[in-house]
Protein 1
Amino acid sequence: MTSLSRRAFAITATAALLGGCGGGHRTGRSPAGHPGSTTPSARSTGKSARALGRSVPVGLEIPDIGVDTPVIRLGLAPDHTVQVPPVTAHDRAGWYRHSPTPGQTGPSVILGHVTVGAHGDGVFRHLARLGRGDRVVARLENGTAAVFAVYSVRTVAKADFPTDAVYGDVGRPELRLITCGGPRTGDEYRDNVIVFAALTSASP
Amino acid sequence: MRRTVLSATALACTAVLASTVPAFADGPSPVPAATVTPSESPAPADATDPSPVPAESEAQAPGEVTVVPSGAPDTGVASAESGTDGALIGGSAAAVLAAGGAAALLVRRRRATTA
């Protein structure tokens, strides 16, 4: 019975991945179905990881851009926009607490600053440099880690923020990393840089 | 004879009435039974119907975003220093240009006086 259910799960997961990733060439999924999006790499599609249990993220590592940061919790601002981490010298990333924890089914959303005013670079200063297949590790409160592979990096105007693609249901464990980018107007950035990643494995 | 006919008729009527009384008595008993059965049947139906719905929503609750924020996140505060830096760079470039122009003028004048 358990082997049957495992088989059923494997078939379902494979079908979901095949349907979601378009065979690893061009994505047909609605959340990532946008111009300029790239598909999950072979690493991310090949190792379809099972969804993890709920455990709040406490740290984030992105080796390719030298990020190793604690993760704080963020909620909603009074104007119903998402809160962002405080502007401090020791900038940290923040997890949007109304999104799934990393590894749970759905898009787990983590935000960080690109710059923090007079303090200089933010924790996500070089987020736009990430590319398909790059590794992102979320350290969880229960001592485990959820490992993701980047499948798309988008720079979009804030005026056209893709809410559905970022926060919409995806049916599998995914990660969104968000910061600002593009040209500056005064002390504000025109664009958002959004990294889309899919869970590849979990390490104890 | 008439008496017997009348009494027979009266007996028949009472018998009919007597038979109808239990008929009335029987009538109400199925009615509550009927009301009980529907009341019982919707109750479990109602009890079973809502239970799967929360179960499904609970199953979905561990995943996906529960509250979607509005707008785009403001995840970048450009440094005010960068503006002053730009002004400094522009100012120094202008100073260099002015110094170069002044030097060129001096050289010209010297050449003119020596000639």
Note: The mean pLDDT of chain B is 54.
Protein 2
Amino acid sequence: MFKPFTLQARLGMAGVLLAMLLLPALTADPYVMHVMVLTMIFGIFASAWNLVTGFAGLKTFGHHAFFGLGAYGSALIAINLGLSPWFTIWLGGLIAAAAGLLIGTPILRIRSMPHVAIVTLGFAEIVRICVANLSGLTRGEMGLWGIPQFEGFTLPLVGPVSFTPADKVSFYYLALALTVLVLLVIVRLMRSKTGLAMLAMRDGEDAAESLGVNLTRMKLMVFGLSAFIVGIAGAFYAHYLSILTPASAVGVDLMISIIAMVLVGGLGTVSGPLVGAFALTLMIEAMRDLENYRLLGYGALIVVIVMFLPKGLVTLRERFFPRPQEQ
Amino acid sequence: MNLAIFLEQILNGLIAGSMYALIGSGIALVYGTMKVLNLAHGEFYMLGGYFTFYLTVQLGLPFWVAIPLAVLLAFLLGMAIQKLTIEYLIVRENWAFTTIAATLGLSIVLQNAALLIFGERFNSVPYYVDGVMVLGDIRLPWQRVMIFVVALATIAAMTWLLKYTRLGWSIRATSQDQDAAEVVGIPVRRVYMICFGLAAALGALAAAMLAPISAINPWAGIPILLKGFVVVILGGLGSFPGAIVGGLLLGVVEAVGVQLTSSEWRDVISFSLMIAVIWWRPWGLFGKK
């Protein structure tokens, strides 16, 4: 993680980015664009969950609460106060971060992983029930619709850019920009001293503390940052689809998909969550007819990966072609 | 609201709480011995409900045959699942996370397998006993009284098992110090398996008792699991007596809370109670620091 990027790695990253930038030129098919936008939203969510679970070692199972808070928060502010989604998605992120700090404070000061798992799960359930029950505000199970879209603008050289259901390409580039931004933040963080302290905390809390890492502050910082990123992903999702239901935005199914994606890609790696999000989304789309077996497949996949490939897909290469050990 | 109705609600809360206690004590038993948080525990409840439904309604067995059979089936299933999954994960380095993730995966597999096999219909079982017990102004169906009596008997039996049998001694030794238990010749791995089976059996028993009152469907285990988690947090994670008291307490708090608000807020009340307890006494109401 702290080695300088090799030329190979740099070329690889540049290649993937170039391919992503050029994809709409090859096919602007709305269906392909839609699938890619969802992949990137889930990829951002998965990366942020991996940040707390894979890098900081805080095993939370309730991150869908922050997705839902960001989504509903941003949508409700945009609808009721008439503010622009360009502004409210950041508010959605802040709402999620505030909730993350609120729920993180009691659980992160005690060093018990089961408590973290249980309380985050319970908190997500509280959020889901509140969203479903407060139907005067959120329209409950009926679904919140009529969420404002991003306003269009005019780019020099490109011309007018608009964000309507027909213009998937502009959403694609916006999602790509967000994904790159989130990745930059995560990579910068993980390659900094703070990132080193975080990994030390994950691998040995007592040792890290004795070397001067403030565990509680570090955990709260990571938890808040992760909730913020997930909140923004949720807010983007809200303004992209323009309709939210408690099940789609705060359902536990969402969290299960994210966990499956991260485990398939590789927990505790930078590229794993994105690879996992891409692989699983493609798999789901390829097997549309088997929709009824989707969750069954996710569940089985989680069990199989955990038992037989605990480090995920991105470490497969090293498994089959081990690099010579560095001296 | 008059006093009789209020007391009736408290009694109903205690009865629901006795079932929460069975669920919570299963989670506590597994966590107490092998430090595994079992996210698939709710599915043993759900499967126990289906076993009871098929044995009583489809096969027409009397309830006093069907319920022990359902519980036995769950016991065997629990042991088999432990043997096939947790057994391998628990010896690995990263077991604390992988066991949670694996049981989460298992829970989803079991839910969706139940959905495919049994369908999404809500099944229910007829009352095992009819009639209503009348005590002054308070009226309680005998069915509910029976639930409470069975719960108390089960708790008594489990306490006896843990205190006075060789198996119980092994379980308690393992939960106190796994390495020391191994040194004195306790087959720790077998204890793990049996504890997992016992927990599944306790979950299935709760489902069998509640089957006439609440419908059985593939997702019936999810709310039950979350309730069980609240119970173990209240009582202190891994404590068997804590889970019993925590369960009863949760039942009463919910009953009072629902009287004050409405039933759709029931789960919010219990989860908020859990978070309040974590703020105030993270080691549980009855656990030690």
Note: Chain B has one domain: 3-280.
Protein 3
Amino acid sequence: MTTTEPAPTRSRTAPDERPAIRVRGLVKRYGGRAVVDGIDLDVRRGEVFALLGPNGAGKTTTVEILAGVRRRDAGEVRVLGADPAGGDRAWRDRVGVVGQTTGAGNALTVRETVDHFAHYHVTPQRSEELIAAVGLTEAAGRRVDRLSGGQRRRLEVALGVQGRPDLLFLDEPTTGLDPVARRQFWALVESLQAAGTTVLLTTHYLDEAAHLADRVGVITDGRLVEVAPPAELGGALRREATVHWTEDGAPREVRTLTPAALLRDLLAAVPHGELPDLTVTRPGLEDVYLRLVGIPEEAVR
Amino acid sequence: MTGTVLTRPAPSAWARIAWARVGLELRLFVREPQQVVFSFAYPVLMMVVFGSVFGGNEVSPGVPFSQYFVAGIAATGIMLTSFQAVGTGIAEERDRGDLERLQVLGTPLVAYFGGKAGQVLVSTVAQLAVLLAVASLAYDVPLPDDPARWLTFTWVALGGALAGTVLGIAVSSVVGSARAAGAGIPAFAVVLQFFSGVFFVYTELPAWMQQVAAIFPLKWMTQGMRSVFLPEQAAAAEVAGAWEHGRTALVLAAWVIIGVVVCARTFRWRRGA
């Protein structure tokens, strides 16, 4: 067991050098079908990493395995230096998970819920400060079942960070939130990041991943198909331009890495005329994402 | 492990969490009106119904039915606040995802179980107090004045409540969804009440029913409670011709141990895998 190991000396490598999460060849099967099918992943300490993918891609299963609540079928996983499958209480205290419920029923008030769970943590945040940090001071005396959806979500976030975790898992944290509540939530994640917390979040909102994450991993059919900072996601796909025009009454479309050359040829063919409906477009993040997850753009237009 | 771990103190003692959970469970219990009404009203209602219908009958010379019945209904009440309430309650908590939340917090099992047991003991004491007050004031059931009988009452109630709690936790792992638990556990409890001589005189039941009932704690709890509330000579009317305190204690202790082992081996924080 990890806790019985002798204390490492101070002179050893700085803890920040090692990844917060290291995954190699992770596999999880349900009834013979691999929902997680060989994922390799490294998340650096202090990083905000977004797992982006469609529903059923394996995001939630991956997070559940990393958070130590689901067993894996194969692969090597280290989270904060320990195997989550054997995570002891000291390990769990360093890992925060924002769940879908408060865990204490709906009959408690916000303050009662926060006060209760303070007992579970070694170094809990002060209840008043925590409630204020998630903007629930006004609602602190309200019962959980009388909170709005956004308020509930904020309470769940508060409970996830109550123990001052080194690593926080957020599984689709803003699903169902209105745009204002989403922005407030983003600000909260940014403040956690500023405090040095490593964050792994899953989302199927591209703008969320682009806004929050240092790096994005695109996951589809249980595989991680690309990992990159949001601005670089898609690489070659992104440099590819689509040139569109109408010729002889029929729409034409060409994808090319060298749109200028194509345009010269096209314009040379009609030196005095016009090219009807001429457009040159670069793919946005959404187009890149759709191509990465293998959904034809035509299907969603 | 890593250096950063060592900067954190050791995790909170399980007893501290268990204590916090007793408070939480009690608070949730009193805020759930159906649970409170059911736990307190059901035994009293049964007392009123059966007391009114059969109150005048004597089950044996000098023992009115209401006196016989209060023993059975006290035992039943304990089973309801422990076995039934815990079994259905945990299935609901699991369905709602509350237990998953407790798992990611690293809640020690013993703290969770301790919270349940504490809540059961407090609500059982309150329920028995109400029942005995009604039985004594409204149906003239004489309450024992012998301290030895109250001692018996205490260990039977305590053993029954603990056995009921651990078996409630154990059964919640087996039944699956909250819907299945909500239907199955009360149905099982009602059948067991009939078999165990709560509503009818045990010795008048068919032998096979008696044998089935003798496997489970409820029959022994009712018998133990009869030894508290019935006159000494009524022991002769029992199947064994005696109160069998030793055997009762043994059966309850055995069920507590079996229940703890089953809980520890089968308890699941989440539905499914």
Note: The longest strand of chain A covers residues 33-43.
Protein 4
Amino acid sequence: MVEYIFYALSVICIACALLVVFSKNPIHSVLYLILTFFAIAGHYVLLNAQFLAVVHIIVYAGAIMVLFLFVIMLLNLNAETEPHKNMITKIMATVSGGLLLVTLVGSFRAAGQVEMVRLDNSNIGTIENLGKVLFNDFLLPFEISSVLFLSAMIGAVILGKKQLS
Amino acid sequence: MGIELLIFKSILVMVIFTITLTIAAYSTYGERKIAAFLQDRIGPNRSGPFGIFQPVADGGKMFLKEEIIPADASAFLFVLGPSLAMLTALMTGVVIPWGDTLTLNGVEYSLQITDLNIGVLYIFGVVSFGVYGIMIGGWSSNNKFSLLGAIRASAQMISYELAMGLSIVALIMTTGTLSIKEIVDQQATWHWNILYQPLGFLIFMICAFAECNRAPFDLAECETELVGGYHTEYSSMKLGFYLFAEYINMFISSALMASLYFGGYNFPFMNSLGLDQNWVTILGSVVFFGKVFFFIFFFMWIRWTIPRFRYDQLMRLGWQSLIPLAILNILLTGIFTMREELKNWLFN
């Protein structure tokens, strides 16, 4: 049962991710990206990490993609107003994409087989356990990332101010 | 899961679905009657005694109107918009505990469709997704007024989601759980969370008004500036879906306020009545719906009393008043929770 759901979610995820790239209309791309996020959230639920799944949906599908959609709707991008790149740019993009593919294939070939770990506690992804782990074992990285968030917030406020006096 | 449980849950889903739609339909009637009462008018009184069949007549009218899809609109997205609005409105009802447990033939059945251990976050997930219904509908109408209305609505919803989340954080600090069922059970008899979180409740309620796009926060469909807002181009039942989703959202947020802050199905002296557990459960559900109806009435009362905000006032209230207040509330709750430790630390 779980295996079928896994494959169904993976197919949805990859298909939507491809449609994000291939859609002509940027609004459709954004909507497919939201579907991709939902499929990924489904994978988190399969791993028994409901908290991560819901936070993923709230933060990515609910907040970041809304802002994306916002900007694209206001700019009203469509096929006619799309800037046309010249030939050299297209060739360079293809070459660099191909090089990235070669690097990825090479690194995957060189990577060793990872031993699968079976956890004793299947509730490791629940919010209680996650909170305990974050505040006991990973307190310093957690605090450092919160400082990072704070600095990002201050940066956004400064950029949002009309004039700096 | 036993087959009986499956059947029970299916029936429960159907019952909740029907109740939600009925209450939403009769909220439109209630809204018009209350508006009439507040403005010293009579209100709808033509169809049936006291105009009681008005929602049926309105629904029939919606179905019979011509359906129009604007020429340059993206037809699929144009239909998707109201569908998403309705879907997200109906999805939140599953985690709300409509009552305690019923014992039938020696088996206990919970009157909650599913008890997620992250119930509060689930609701936030669905609410944050609710913006898409409005945005997609407004954009795909291919109309400047619709687009402006949609952008206003989504900016407002994102802004007030923040303060709403922060006010809930303080509540979670006192309850220590995200499961709505556990939060309700902790408020047994009269230990309602409103007594511990009055400021949090006030912030939550204001944000719930804004999230439902209700007056005084109904800038998304401000007639004097935007024709009809994001649903200017909609007609027939697709418009009906948008209007209906608003009433369902109002019902669900009333249920949420009742269960998070006003004890849900708990009422004072519930354990000293000497009644059978099943009767206490049924009475509790009746009390719960009573609280929900009170909040729905409160929503309407506010709508017909307070005029609409200006857009900059709305944003200032959200960002400069509610969010700092919510953070202050978290701080105060933290100090109150750790008061023993703080006393030891300060005076030793």
Note: The mean pLDDT of chain B is 83.
